[in-house]
Design a protein that fits this description.
about 40% helix, about 350 residues, 7-stranded parallel sheet
Length: about 350
């Protein structure tokens, strides 16, 4: 059995999800293939040679569909691809996947634009168990079958790596220079924390190929305005496997991952930090509710409340009893609720409910 997952570009959480689930599904005899319409830095992570095509040419996509006769195709975010695949003659089940839709206003706009394509071409929608996404699809297209279960995280292959401790604590951030990832608040919170903890260093992990131009123009001036030039290290396009080491180093340094996002559909960086015993302080950005139980597996601060974030960061870095408890509980939570075995079971159950053939 073969299934195809499509997205715009191999980068960020979608690249991680696609790679992890292809490995997971193979254990159940399901071969996953990947189709991206643009090149992206995340392609470097495909070290196990998952069948992957990067093209935006109809004739190449047509050849892919004809050769493999997929049991099902999953289209992430790119609703125009639904019509494209149907036009190219595919008659199997076609599922729209709601991932990476951004802030609520952006997701709502995408939903409205996608409605006619969902009505005419899709056989269902797959989405993580994230409240704003579930509510949006219930409201706009109650007629469309919904499949909702957590994305996969393999805490057996992505886990803590012991290294020599750093001589300073680290405040880390993962994202892109765009409004939803809210990089400005990371710099503001980091600036305040460095005044309280002078040894603190800031690390930003980013993909410099994906950004909003207006946000990028504001980035360097803001670093200088806040006096962070000698405090900030930017790490671009770090291979996914290397992030285990970095998250582990941050956790062992006495630091933490700060997630400043306005809204997340899932939030892979948060979950993966927890796998590596790196404590997380986050906005309540919806998707991370699957991972973070306040003061148990992580900590929240109210979006926009810089003072509360600074207080939370200080507590996570100075309350050693709380910190140790959160590090232990975070790993256990991920292993229990996001295992590959659970994902395979839920994905297989979904496939059994899809139609075998769709009439033209």
């Amino acid at each position: 059995m073969k299934v195809l997952f499509t997205f715009y570009v191999p980068s960020g959480g979608l690249e991680t999800l696609n790679r992890l689930r292809c490995h997971t599904l193979l254990q159940g005899g399901i071969q996953g293939h990947l189709l991206y319409t643009q090149h992206g830095a995340g392609i470097q992570n495909n070290v196990n040679n998952i069948p992957t095509l990067i093209t935006n040419l109809d004739e190449q996509i047509q050849a892919l569909l004809d050769e493999h006769q997929y049991t099902a195709i999953f289209v992430s975010s790119d609703y125009l691809m639904l019509r494209r695949i149907r036009t190219l003659g595919y008659r199997g089940p076609l599922i729209f996947e709601a991932q990476g839709l951004g802030m609520h206003s952006t997701a709502e706009q995408t939903m409205l634009e996608a409605l006619p394509f969902l009505r005419d071409y899709a056989n269902g929608v797959l989405l993580p168990a994230t409240s704003h996404l579930i509510e949006m699809f219930e409201h706009h297209c109650p007629w469309l079958p919904r499949f909702s279960f957590p994305n996969v995280i393999n805490a057996s292959t992505f886990h803590y790596q012991a290294r020599a401790p750093l001589p300073y604590p680290v405040l880390a951030w993962v994202g892109r220079l765009e409004k939803n990832k809210n990089w400005k608040h990371f710099l503001e919170i980091g600036s305040s924390l460095t005044k309280l903890i002078p040894a603190l260093q800031l690390w930003m992990f980013a993909d410099p190929n994906i950004y909003i131009e207006e946000e990028r123009k504001q980035f360097e001036p803001m670093i200088d305005k806040l006096g962070l030039r000698n405090k900030l290290t930017i790490r671009n396009n770090v291979p996914h496997a290397d992030m285990m080491t970095y998250f582990s180093m941050v956790g062992d340094s006495g630091g933490l991952l700060l997630s400043t996002s306005i809204l997340e559909g899932f939030g892979y960086a948060v979950a993966e930090a927890m796998c590596c015993r790196c404590p997380v302080l986050s906005t309540d950005s919806d998707g991370v509710r699957a991972f973070i139980i306040h003061n148990q597996t992580g900590m929240y601060y109210r979006h926009g409340n810089i003072q509360q974030a600074v207080q939370g960061g200080m507590r996570l870095m100075t309350d050693q009893r709380l910190r140790a408890s959160i590090r232990d509980a975070g790993v256990a939570h991920i292993r229990t609720h996001f295992s590959p075995d659970l994902y395979l079971k839920q994905f297989t159950k979904m496939l059994a409910q899809l139609p075998l053939h769709v009439e033209p």
